[in-house]
Amino acid sequence: MPAEPASVLFPVPGYRLQRRLGAWLLAGAALLLLASGGWSLWRVASAVDPQLQRLARTIERLRLNELGAEPGVFQATLAGEELQNLVGLGELVPFCLTVRNIHGLAVDQRCLGTAGAHPGGVESLLRATAGEEVGALLPLVRYPGTRVGELALAPHWPAQSALLWQHWWQTLVSAAGVLAVAALAYLAARRALKPTGAMMATLQRLEAGDLSARMPPAGPRELQRIGAQFNRMADRLQDTVGAQRQLADRLLSVREEERRHLARELHDELGQSLTSMRAEVAIVDEVARESVPALLPSADALTRTCEGMVTAVRHIVQQLRPPGLETFGLKASLEQLVDSWRRRDTGRCGYSLQIDGDFDRWDDTLSVSVFRLVQEGLTNAVRHGQATRIAVVLSERADGLHLQVQDNGPLAQPPSLPDSGGQGLLGMRERVQALGGTLALEVADPHGLRLRIHLPVHEGHHAAPADH
């Protein structure tokens, strides 16, 4: 029997390339969105302080921090209206300013520049990223150079937040574009890979033993070429396996025919000779008792030898050919086999036999094989299973013959079938393989061994039985 496929013993999780591709595309778009958003946040936050420093240097170069001359310069008050010349810079670079007098008291505060709409959380995040200690200080002077206060420059957080929000919107639009392209790629890949479902189903059928499974001619050219190459390989495999099965079936038929011929020769030729010998030994024994008592020990020895030879020949004939199979049919032979095991165990083990179907119309090769499989299954259960109950079920279904031999022994793990050598299960596996069937060993519930055999039945097996 071929080894059980790995997917049968250990089911493999389903894998769909379309889903995996879609998941990767979504994950890529999400990572792109997060990376772009983080980069935009870092770029805006890291540019706040350098921007204010450049603004301060520009104000100094343009001398926009110098106020006009007034009489009584030492008594004059400081007014924020004199700084209207900074409004133009605020239109270019948004910022906030605080005007402090010579005593450090704020006399005016304003923010220059336009602040766009943005969520409140954006400003908080930007402040936390840039830090609150950003800004620049400039002296405020009056002609002819008297320091009268200072000008504090600070970020215009609402305007900067609006700028960040604008960058994020651009990132969202870019991500949406990437998602649209990814969706188109996913749809194209899904359409191209749609035939893979049928291809996987074909592979599973072939793995299960259906050698007629073929790849459908669908999908892109690459998949069609793969499918065509697979179909050619499957054709060769089917032809090879078919030829091997025919050869194995023929060898099995020849072997059973030779056994049947040898059993007949032993029964007819050697049996008749032994019968004649027993008759002659009986005459010798009678003459020895009447006339030559000294020959009695030899006559008794010859009698025992003849009886032993008859028993040995009968046993060999039974091993070569199931008794009564040709005369009474498979069903009666199986009933007699199970009944003989029942009598032999004298009540220690219970046996049950269930047969569903007309099995007497099968050819000799299949009938003998089924009998041998049941015989070996019972032997294995009794000798190795330590069972107290053995059930044999034989049924014929649309897909062929099904045989099950189950015991309630203490076995907790199915035995492994050897690759070579040995008897018993190995012989059963070879016979099942020769008939193109499958053999499986399972642990019964709650313990014990369940032997399941499936044999395909074709028209040749339903031929009329040979004359006998």
From TrEMBL:
Compartmental location: Membrane
Transmembrane segments: 21-42, 168-189
SUPFAM superfamilies reported for this sequence: ATPase domain of HSP90 chaperone/DNA topoisomerase II/histidine kinase (SSF55874), HAMP domain-like (SSF158472)
Pfam short name (any one): HisKA_3
Cellular component, GO annotation: membrane
GO molecular function: phosphorelay sensor kinase activity; protein dimerization activity
Domain HAMP: start-end pairs: 190-242
Main location: membrane
Keywords attached to this entry: Kinase, Membrane, Phosphoprotein, Transferase, Transmembrane, Transmembrane helix, Two-component regulatory system
Catalytic activity: ATP + protein L-histidine = ADP + protein N-phospho-L-histidine
Top-level taxon in the UniProt lineage: Bacteria
Domain Histidine kinase: 372-459
EC number: 2.7.13.3
Name this polypeptide is given: histidine kinase
Organism whose genome encodes this protein: Hydrogenophaga pseudoflava
